[in-house]
Fold:
Amino acid sequence: MDWRFDNTYARELDGFYVPWDPAVPPAPRLVALNTELAAELGLDPGVLAGEEGVAALSGAVVPEGATPLAQAYSGHQFGQLSPMLGDGRAVLLGEIVDRHGNRRDIAFKGSGRTQFSRGGDGKAVLGPVLREYVVGEAMHALGIPTTRALAAATTGEQVLRDGGVQPGAILTRVAASHLRVGTFQMAAHHGTVEHVRRLADYAMARHYPEVAPGDYAGFLSAVIARQAELIASWMSIGFIHGVMNTDNMTISGETIDYGPCAFLDAYDEDQVFSSIDTGGRYRYGQQPPIALWNLSRFAETLLGLLAEDGDVDAAIADATERVEAFVAAYDAARAARLRAKLGLAGAVESDGVLIGDLLSMMAMNRLDFTSTFRGLARVLRGEPDDVREHVLDLAAYDAWQARWRQRLGETDRTATAAAMDAVNPVYIPRNHLVEEALAAAVDGDLAPFEQLLSVVREPFTERPGLDRYAEPAPAEFTTGYVTYCGT
Ligand code: AMP
Ligand code: MG
Structure:
């Protein structure tokens, strides 16, 4: 099969990677194949599902035209700079221009040790690989920019994790690119301003063709604008990334590296699930300020380019202003999304208070974030009010609803409810469902994983027989629930 690789990163960014072959797995087996994405990439799903495909999607045979390499990058991890990280268990095979003309990276995760592995084994295991698969597909279906899984394969190896053995696995990941804030940090810390320029020119041509070549300040603002939209989209569906290190923030604006990620059940700004985030640095409500912090680190890497006329102070002042513009951009993006979630047309001064009061009520009563918005649409249709059933202070709730209805005005309620349902998912990959599906898969039963995948791929359309996928986790589950990196 001809993959039609065209590998600009390998060609143009010498010095930003080391050529590296994936390890050959002892007994590869395909576990999941994303046929829709394969077709989008112009690859034949039938061939990919066969012997040749399994070999290619497990690292057993490097497909023709691929130039496998491990990317070099740095990064702030939980606020501490690691000067050299790099792909410790990943390999970029190359790039394919898809049917829409978009250039996409094809990369492995879990394909063995590389020059950047440090103490790690370079492996991934089936549970976390399938978590990244299903959560990525859900995010895509929710309309959120994200890397996606093309395939998951087991390697036939047993890998030591958390004191036990687990099936080794490889995820084939498709991304707009794997350029990260950490890639720029690596260039700035280890290279000269010319290295940063080469990287910036590459990133701008690939992701921001609308910015004039050489306009690095414009590039900075464009990345900030995309991240503001991305974080607002996470917040509006209750997504918690879990490890927002600078090496896990893309330049393209896609969500990347689903590790200990999770979704809110009860609305709680302080919610944190990750086992490694003991300080709560990356808790739900902290995601916008962390994004701002990461973007400040990104801006610093560009200072050499921004201060080329010699006026460093002016460059710093300008970059600071651009970084701080994240706050207004994020606030506007979030407000727009929340208005849509409540069916509010246009923008009115008092919307902020109306939305804030609802969120306070949700926090106070520990209302399920996802179901509440679907429930409010049902109320508009005249169906029973199940949000109200979960609220203690009924007078406050009724008063809020009266204000909401007044703000909606004389609109057609059925149309408004339909508009709300088009942005408020009924199905998300709820943590307990994900855990259940992964546990079954590790035991050899892929049916729950496949079922969950098919449910979350159509998140806005309520279907009969899927009630348990729409329901919040039992309280016993959420109390004490933690997610692991699985690394
Ligand atoms: P991640 O948590 O996947 O974003 O990875 C952070 C850094 O640790 C990256 O440089 C990874 O390549 C590296 N890493 C994570 N897991 C492993 C592993 N099992 N073996 C080697 N390196 C790893
Ligand atoms: Mg990472």
Summary: The chain has a mean pLDDT of 97. The chain is about 45% helix and 15% strand. Residues 8-175 form one domain. Residues 85-90, 116-117, 120-123, 243, 248, 257, 259, 485, 487 surround adenosine monophosphate (ligand 1) (CB under 6 Å).
